[in-house]
Amino acid sequence: MQALQIEHISKSFNHFKAVDDVSFSLDEGKMFALLGPNGAGKTTTMRMIMNIIVPDAGSIRIFGEPFRESHKNLLGYLPEERGLYPKMKVLDHLQFLGEMKGLSGAEAKKLAREWLERFDLAERAQKKVMELSKGLQQKVQFIGTMLHSPRLLIVDEPFSGLDPVNTKFMKDVLLEMKKEGKTIILSTHMMEQAEKLCDEICLINKGKAVLQGNLDEIKQAYSQNSVTVEYRGNAAAVQNLPLVESLNDYGNYMEIRLRDGARPGELFRLLAESELEIQRFEAAKTSLNEIFIQAVKD
Hints:
This protein is an alpha/beta fold. Helices cover about 30% and strands about 30% of the residues. It has nine helices and 14 strands. A six-stranded mixed β-sheet has the order 6-7-8-3-9-10, sandwiched between helices. Helix 2 packs across helix 3 (about 105-120) and helix 2 runs parallel beside helix 4 (about 135-145). It is globular, with a radius of gyration of 22 Å.
């Protein structure tokens, strides 16, 4: 079954068109990346899926049906702008959120305690939300988002503000939910995480869907002539090589797209003859970060 089917949705605010004729669908049990630069229309799209705002045109179907009130208990939404009540105690807050999603008070409290233990927050259960750091507040809100075990989980920038340890932990929880058959829509600027986690993507730019589909197929289509290079030295001259179509340089690592007809071996020869110290040279699939930059630029 399709967990979500979006057909030709549009939304304007006054004279600004935030979302312009966007369509995509998502099968159950998949993790889907909704990507785009700031102001592209991602958050507006997610809010329309949640029925927080209504499309001006088009349709949205949840598990094969138009949005109904009963769907709210099947959905979980973690917005980018976090929204917790700062003066409530953590455990009480989670119980409240669980009851809002149809759990009994006892069940919500039991599940909240279990998740707080797992997130290493059990000792803070009686603390007020305002007494926690922003990172810990984010973990609390994430628990509240998934406490009722939603079939469709929508998370907007879930890794923002987290250290590497907690980023990995959050990633592991999302993968666990996917293995359980949950459907997840992930919106993030951390392209590496989206690339490793997601089966499909939709890239929105200026309100329009400019690239969408299976991630492996998209990477294959963009990777006909690309290489990655790890190096030491000054790589400023590489951009001007006639073989190079575009280059993304991170200081000691480059993602290079070659011009049509050029061969990776030709580039390797030129780099080997330069003053660069080449530590790794690999013809590889283009990274999602490079695809993102190229698709938005195009």
